[in-house]
Amino acid sequence: MRNNKLKIEKITKGLIREISLDMPSDEFTNKIMNKVFLEARQKPVSYQPVISKRSWQIIIVSMCIFVCFILFVTESNNKFFEEFPVTIDINPYLEAITTFINNLFGNIQIPPSIFIGLIPIVALVIADKFLRKIIWHNYTGN
Amino acid sequence: MMGFQKDSYYINKVLAGDLSAYSSLVEKHKGMVYTVALRMVKNPQDAEEITQDAFLKAFRSLKSFKGKSKFSTWIYKIIYNTAVSRLRKKQIETIKIDNENPGNFDCEQTSNELKKLCDEDRKKYVRAAFEKLPEEDEIILTLYYLNESSVEEICEIIKLTKSNVKVKLHRARKKFYLALEHLLKEELTSIL
To answer: Does domain B7-90 have CATH number 2.40.37.10?
Structure first.
């Protein structure tokens, strides 16, 4: 029984293999490749941001934690900043910005620590946009 | 025949941006893909058109190809589905041979009779017998015997269970031999 089945399989395979594969026209591959290249050219290339969404989330959460730490955990903001090992004296700038914002919002007191958090974020946003433009320009040649 | 690398080699190149590598994939598989299409739609122009569609669909979805199955199985599945939807659109009526009870056949005798014929005539009869089969039977026989696809691969391509494919394969083979016998008898009657 099994031998008979194998025999049928062998004969059938031999017979069916008598007919070779059908082939499309000679220009078939070229036609497809033309369409492939055309599609690739037409497809808008979406560029990836230098700083990914995930990185942004991590940065924002870290900054929020940092700001909260400064605002609520440290005993005194001033004491914290006195001990903070900053070599560049940014206090005059921060004071100027604080005064400006205080003038705008009246009695609302915004501690400098908020700006310490915000300034790097703004700097990163600007850097991201700027770098993206440069990379996009180099990529497209426009 | 042109020597080809493994499919994964070309796929990785295409995904890395070397689009011209896709032509090797097309060259490697166009014969079988076109054959499957032709067996389904029975018209060379339609077959070429849907083969093109299938290769373009495969190109567009190459990123989603996980490599769980062979690229060939994946593209045969695409061509099969494309052909089925084309047939549905065109509402091509197919003449079906009795599916339930194809009758008995003598494989060895038919094969011996065919051996007496010259190569050209033998091919002509085998092809003619093939054309008398319903599309699905043709596809199953083509994939199984010509392409040496496994039953599991055929299941994936035409979305049938393993036992279903085995039954269909058995019936398709029977119908094929019956068609061959019928054609040979016709020929003999015409000679006499």
So the answer is: no
For residues B30 and A23, the answer to whether their CB atoms sit within 8 Å is yes
- The residue ranges of every structural domain in chain B are 7-90, 107-191
**What is the nearest CA distance from B1 to chain A, expressed in angstroms?**
13
Could you give the ipTM of this predicted complex? 0.76
pLDDT averages per 10-residue partition of chain A, 142 residues: 75 82 89 90 65 84 81 58 59 75 66 79 86 70 48
Q: Tell me, what DSSP letter sits at residue A45?
A: P
Taking the C-alpha atoms of residue B27 and residue B149, their distance in angstroms, rounded to an integer, is 19
Of the residues B28, B33, B107, the best mutation for testing chain A's interface (the one with the most A CB atoms within 10 Å of its CB) is B107
Residue A13 contacts B, CB cutoff 8 Å: yes
- Joined together, the tokens standing for residue B23 give 């032509």
Q: Which residues of B51-72 are buried (b: 16+ CB within 10 A; e: fewer)?
A: bbbbbbbbbeebeebeeeeebb
Distance, CA of B10 to CA of B5 (rounded, Å): 8
